[in-house]
Specification:
8 strands; about 280 residues; eight-stranded parallel beta barrel; 7 helices; Phage tail protein; alpha/beta; disordered N terminus; TIM Barrel
């Protein structure tokens, strides 16, 4: 069992509350057609998926990405407005998020906003995933300025319902103040060998599970139940577990650069099994 530092009241999902998937970023639809098709399959408990083209929106609209964006948006509309079958097989309700690379606070604000506007204008995204988000207290004001502006852009568009969703891709527990800067924080991203012995910060017990996500690679099929128990115990409502190896960036919640294979770019080999274990559902 992993060593956990949270108090007993932090075991917020131990009662079997609904987990769902967050997809950090599949490969381009031409390279990963099955992956993108699975996201709109009825019954997939998808919270959100990230669209990443050349570490951002690209230089022009991509027709293949426009197609998958439209399909995912339509599936969400059917799920949220009652057009999907009202039984155990339901359409997904996941959002499409645009990938913004913060480079741990080194990307200029104007560049990030330009990328955000392109994502909204071309792909009508319902929010943003802020990859390589800094975690230090000193960087918090800059992140707050950015997330405030992004929320304003989403509110002005017709692509995001409920004001959209912002996810901070720290990959580790940040300074607690970041919890008030966005809708969700990725507080773990890394290998199973680290996750099974991971610790959860006590301050996370003050927030519900939908505020946290965990991404774990190298999870053996035989340890899926244990991995889901850890996620529930540590209060994560959104997960992505895969048996694929490789590294995601530099170990700080990165994005698979520097020649490293991104383990989250393809479906896990046990995708059907993990979908059935979590069960169908739609996002909030």
């Amino acid at each position: 069992m992993p060593y956990l530092t949270a108090p007993a009241d932090a075991r917020r999902t131990a009662g079997g509350e609904q987990l769902g998937f967050g997809v950090p970023g599949y490969a381009h639809p031409l390279l990963a057609p099955a992956e993108w098709a699975e996201l709109i399959r009825p019954g997939t408990p998808l919270h959100w998926a990230v669209l990443n083209i050349a570490e951002g929106p690209g230089t022009r609209p991509d027709p293949h990405c426009l197609e998958v964006a439209g399909r995912l948006r339509n599936a969400r509309e059917r799920a949220l407005h009652g057009e999907a079958p009202d039984d155990s097989v339901r359409a997904c309700g996941g959002r499409l998020l645009g990938h913004l690379d913060l480079a741990y606070g080194n990307r200029p604000f104007d560049e990030l906003i330009a990328d955000a506007r392109a994502f909204i204008g071309w792909y009508r995204v319902g929010g943003f995933y802020l990859a390589r988000c800094p975690a230090e207290r000193s960087e918090l004001p800059g992140v707050r300025r950015l997330t405030g502006t992004l929320h304003a852009l989403l509110a002005e568009s017709d692509s995001a319902d409920d004001g959209g969703r912002l996810v901070l891709g720290h990959g580790t527990h940040p300074y607690p103040g970041y919890a008030e800067a966005a809708d969700q924080l990725v507080t773990f991203q890394g290998p199973w060998t680290d996750y099974r012995w991971s610790q959860v910060a006590e301050w996370t017990a003050d927030y519900p599970p939908e505020r946290f996500a965990h991404f774990v690679h190298g999870v053996p099929r035989t340890h899926l139940d244990e991995a889901m128990r850890i996620a529930r115990w540590q209060g994560a409502g959104t997960i992505f577990f895969t048996d694929r190896g490789g590294r995601s960036g530099d170990g700080r919640g990165g994005d698979g650069r520097s020649g490293q294979t991104d383990p989250f770019a393809a479906l896990p080999r046990y995708w059907d099994e993990i979908v059935s274990r979590i069960g169908p559902g739609i996002s909030e």
